[in-house]
Amino acid sequence: MKVFINKRIPEIGINRLLEAGLQIVFPENESLTYEEWLEYCQNADIILNVGGDFKYDKVFFDACPNIKAIALYSVGFDHVDIKEATRRNIPIGNTPDVLSRATSDVAFLLMQSVARRASYNFQKVIDDNWGAFDPLHALGQELYGKTLGVFGLGRIGFQMAEKCKKAFDMEIIYHNRHQNEEAERELGGTYVSFDELVRNSDVLSVHANFTPEHKDLFNESVFEKMKPNSIFINTARGGFHQEEDLYNALTEGKIWGAGLDVTNPEPMSADNPLLKLSNVCVLPHIGSATIEARNGMARLAAGNIIAFSKGEKMPNCANP
Ligand code: DGY
Q: Which parts of the sequence belong to the D-isomer specific 2-hydroxyacid dehydrogenase NAD-binding domain (predicted)?
């Protein structure tokens, strides 16, 4: 079977596929136009998809009738019409667990960066503007004993909560599709309504799977209810927050700051006004960017393809 991989992934995944006797096709140039990408897909049996540049929707599936399976090099599958894939019997593999630690590390890093105004202070050093010691300037806030609100207490949300509990003895509240009693016991966390989450969090960190109903969930009316000292963290998907409303909340003092590893669109343009704000820290979607996580993702994606090629169920499958 022919596997099309649109971008290089760690060797561990490639070697596994080759050892399993699969034929691999890489593009000559990794920055493909939609048409070029489609042509590669039309000539493959299986796709190992890296990144969220192109959508797997009805138009795609109609244009690529030979595609038998797709293995995503990601845990998120918001760029795939899972219903349509399932209707056509196309399994969609993903890579859960292996990136939970790395992604929650980035949420934790952003929380501290914003609380201690790291990007603002870093910029001062770069600008040769260190300045004299000033008891009243560039003051951050401490996180000890504060309340962490987790939106989406899945694997990544749980690990973020665990870190905050251990490092800063933070109180954990969360909102989720379902109450998670096991996680509550382990974290001493409390399930709250969305409204309570928004009103009571000192740090509100987004970790849910993104679906179309979540588009712009964190908007003006939500930021309005948040505490003025609160920090908004998003390492899930940029579609969760309404960017202009976030900008206004940050400049009008409705919230203290924001840490984003995801934006909408990606990449964020360098002249985006959010980047001018001293209470914002933006990273270029590096949640899973560790050697360990990326190797794990390569292993799982290859494992999904190999299982499928043997007529078995993908071990990590996003279809219901
Ligand atoms: C994921 O796995 O969904 C990440 O966002 C991609 O790095």
A: 110-287
Separation in Å, CA 1 to CA 31, 72, 168:
24, 17, 51
Q: Do 226 and 232 touch, CB atoms closer than 8 A? A: yes
Where does residue 20 rank: exposed (0-12), middle (13-18), buried (19+ CB within 10 A)?
Answer: middle
In the chain, the largest separation of any two C-alpha atoms, in whole Å, equals: 68
Instruction: Judge if the beta carbon of residue 99 lies within 6 A of ligand 1.
Output: yes
**pLDDT means over runs of 10, the chain (320 residues):** 97 98 96 97 98 96 98 98 98 98 98 97 96 95 98 97 98 96 94 98 98 97 98 98 98 98 97 97 98 98 98 97
Catalytic residue among 117, 207, 241, 285: 285
pTM for the whole thing?
A: 0.97
Phi then psi for 25, rounded to 5 degrees? -120, 125
d(CA 40, CA 38): 5
Which helix (H) or strand (E) segment is 55 a member of?
A: none
CB neighbour list of residue 311: distance below 8 Å, 6 or more residues apart: none
Instruction: Find out whether 151 and 197 touch, Cβ atoms under 8 Å.
Output: yes
Closest CA to 309 of 318, 301, 320: 301
309 lines ligand 1 (CB under 6 A): no
Ligand 1 centroid to 75 CA: how many Å?
A: 5
Handedness of CA 47, 49, 53, 54 (dihedral sign): positive
